Amino acid sequence: MEAVPARARAYVACVALLAVVCLLPLPRTHAPWWAIGLLAALFAACEHPLGRRFGGTFYPVLLAGAFLLPPPAAALVPVPAALFARGEHRPAPLRRVWRAAQPSLAVWGAAHVHWALGGRDAVVDRDFPYALLPAGAAVLAFCLILTVLDGGILALTVGVPAPPGRGSAPARRAWRGLLARSLAPVAVHGLAGLMMAVLWRSPYGPAAALLVLLPMCVSWWVFAQYHRERAAHQATIRALVQAVDIKDGYTRGHSERVGQASVLIARELGMDDERVEVLRFAGILHDVGKLGVPTRLLRKDGPLTPEERRIIELHPEYGHEMVRGISFLGEARAAILHHHERLDGSGYPYGLAGTRIPECARVVAVADAFDAMTSTRSYSRARPVPAAVAELERCAGSHFDPRMVAALVRALRRHGWHPAVTADEPAHDRAPRQRPAGTGTPR
Fold first, then answer.
1. Within 254-384, where are the H helices?
2. CA 103 to chain CA centroid, nearest Å
3. For residue range 97-150, what is the model confidence (pLDDT) as tens digits?
4. Are residues 298 and 202 in the same domain?
5. Which of 109, 246, 288, 435 is least enclosed by beta carbons within 10 angstroms?
6. Same domain, yes or no, for 272 and 169?
7. Which 8-state DSSP code applies to residue 5?
8. Does residue 83 belong to any structural domain of this protein?
9. Residues 75, 64: contact at Cβ < 8 Å?
C-alpha cells in the first residue's frame, strides 16, 4: 500500500465514512459500556503482535459481540485495536483506518442479521438448536461483507492481471474464491463466538465465556504453525529451484513446468490432493541434483563424451542425497532418484524396469520428457505439442508408462498447455545447437 492509487484512498474513505454512520446510533442503544470495553480489550489483545502468535485476527470475539450487543455497539468492538495498533507498513494511517472500518462494517451487518432473526432472545434463553439458525445467517453476512470489501480493495490497489486472450475483468478476478476460502474458517469462529455469547448470558457470566478462548487459542496457534511450516517448505523449494535455474540457464523455468505437467497427470489419474502436492514437489525438484554437476557440462554446446554423460547421469543420485533429510517431500524423493528410469530397464541410475519404478517417478518421467521436447534447449528447438505427444505415445511401453502418457494426453486435451518462456531471452533469439549423441533423453 506504499503507493496507493487515489481511487483506492477514496474507496477506503467511503468505507470509513460508512462505518462512522453505522456507529452514530450508539448513544441511543444503551449498550453496557463495560461489555463493549471488555470485548474490545480482548480483541485488541488478540490483534497485538504477541497475540498474533496465537492465531492472528480473532473473529470469535467479534462474532460474540455481534451475538451479544446491538449492531452499533458491536461495530465499535474492532475499532480501538486498529486505531491504536503499531503501524508495521506504510501508509500506517490509511491501514489503521481500513483495519478499523472493514471489520466494523462486517460486525455491524452480522449483528443486524442476528437480531432481525431473533438471535438475541435465542442466546438469552439458550434455545438450541434454533440459536444456530440466526448465528449461521450472521456468520454468512459477516463473510459476505468482508469478501465484498476485500475484493474491492484488491481490485483498486494491487490489480489482477488478465490471462492472455481472456479480456480484462480485474474486479471479477479480485473477488473470485474469497468467499469460499473464508467461509469454513469463519464458521468455526462463529461457533466459538456463539458459545462465548451463551456462556456470557448464563449465570456464570463473562468469566465462563472467556474459557472458550483457551481451546480456540491453542487450536488456532497449531493452525498458524502449520501454515508457517508450509511457507517454510515452499521457501526451501524455491531456493533449490532458483539455484538450479541460475546454474543451468537454458532450462530456466523447466522445473516449474515439469511440476505443472506432473500435477495434470496426477489429477487425471484421480490422485488425492496430498499426493498431487507431492507430485508437484517431485516435478519441481526432479533436477535439483544438477547442482552437483559441473556447470561446463550443463552448458556444453556440442555432444557429450561417454565420460561426461556418466557424470551428468549421476544427477538423480546427487538430488536424492540433497533432499533425503527433507521429510515433507515423502515419495517425491523416490521420483527425484528414479525419474530417468525406463519401463524396459534401459534407464538410469539403477536400470529398474516396469512396476519396480515408483509410480511417482513414472509420472515425472513423462512430464520431464514432454517439457524437454516442447522447450527450446541448447541442443534442440522446441517441438509443437502434437509432435511431442506423438513421440511420447510412440515410446509408451518401452520408455514411458502408457497409463501416464494417456493421462497427460487427456489432460492436455481438456486444459491445453500454456508454458512459460524457457529462459530469460525469447525463444526465437536462441539458435538450437547440435544435439548431444545418445538416446535422446534430456540431460
1. 254-268, 273-285, 295-298, 306-312, 315-323, 332-338, 359-373
2. 23
3. 998 999 999 999 999 999 999 888 888 777 777 888 999 999 999 999 998 898
4. no
5. 246
6. no
7. -
8. yes
9. no
